[in-house]
Amino acid sequence: MIDLILRESVPSLGKAGEMVRVKPGYARNFLLPRGLAFEATEGNKKRIAAEAKARDAKHAADRAEAMAFAAKLGAVTVELSSKAGEEGKLFGSITSADIGDALHAMGLDVDKRKIELEHPLKLLGFHTVGVKLHHDVHAEVKVNVTAEG
Question: What is the dihedral of CA 67, 9, 6, 62, to 10 degrees?
């Protein structure tokens, strides 16, 4: 068995920065060539600690940026219009792509895949839609669906 320090998280093995013990073939043929791990030497331990510190700083900066963007999104109401019947049901539906395009037109770039919409909106009125900006940060956007014409 060989002791390694994981450089990145590996499913079913461990998280980045952890010391793991694996078989030599797995280390030689998979982990080491892909740069997923280093041998557990003193120099590499210091190297991994420095990488972890840099990764934590980047994570904190990304989280702070996402929190600021979430505050901007919380203050926004997206206005969308679509053809609707007499009972307030839309003939089509409002999807996450429509909401993403409307946000983009407002100068807020949000990837449509980050908009958490379980089902397309099919009714007129106000709706609250979640947006996942970071794995720790969620924002909510208010969407007002009105009838066309």
Answer: -10
